[in-house]
Amino acid sequence: MRSLLAVDMGLRAGLALYGDDGRLRWYRSRNFGSAPRLRRAVVSMLDEIEDLAWIVVEGGGPLADIWQRQAKRRGIGFRQIGAEAWRNRLLRARQQRTGKQAKVSADALARSVIEWSAAPRPTSLRHDAAEAILIGLHAVVELGWLPRIPSGIARSGQMPRGRPPH
Q1: Is the pLDDT of residue 166 over 60?
Q2: CA-based diameter of the chain, in Å?
Q3: Are 7 and 79 spatial neighbours (Cβ–Cβ below 8 Å)?
Q4: How much is the pTM?
Q5: Which band of pLDDT confidence, cut at 50, 70 and 90, is reported for residue 165?
Q6: How many CA atoms lie within 13 A of 124 on its CB side?
Q7: What is the CATH number of the domain that holds 73?
């Protein structure tokens, strides 16, 4: 079995791990505090994920380079995307008019992914973890691990209906 790690990158990062069945295994938010601490944490975190095949990171710059270097060192696929990639696939235009609307919509959609995946429900869901969940959902469809957005998620009203995956 393969897995994919989705990262909403920053010193405070959202992380979401997906299996090759397209389902969310776990998600979390983590405050690394500094680039050196992030560098050390990435090494140990990736050591713990035995079947990791892909890392997908939203964002760029020196922090993204840390993830990319570790992916290359381990022979793991790496993709770097912008927020517009997953937002355009998963959210309607009206759900993205303001940053606040986008965050509320992302939170609701991430919760439907958690439920569809039968992952543990959050007591609270930080926006960076919610976005990592959606980055991962976008990625598993892009990679073909899921042929399309599952209808159980689409029925949540958070995603455009009848819109084929890109």
Answers
A1: no
A2: 45
A3: no
A4: 0.89
A5: very low
A6: 4
A7: 3.30.420.10
Q: Where are the alpha helices (DSSP H) in the chain?
A: 35-48, 62-74, 83-90, 99-117, 127-142, 151-154
Rounded to whole angstroms, the Cα distance separating 17 from 105 reads 21
In a domain, 159, yes or no: no
Distance separating alpha carbons of residues 113 and 41, to the nearest angstrom: 26
Q: Are 137 and 113 in contact (CB under 8 A)?
A: yes
Judge whether 127 lies within some domain. Answer: yes
Cα 137 to Cα 110: distance, rounded to the nearest angstrom = 9
Decide: 123 and 74 in contact? Cβ < 8 Å. no
**What ranges make up the beta strands (E) of 32-95?**
52-58, 77-81
* Domain tally, the chain: 1
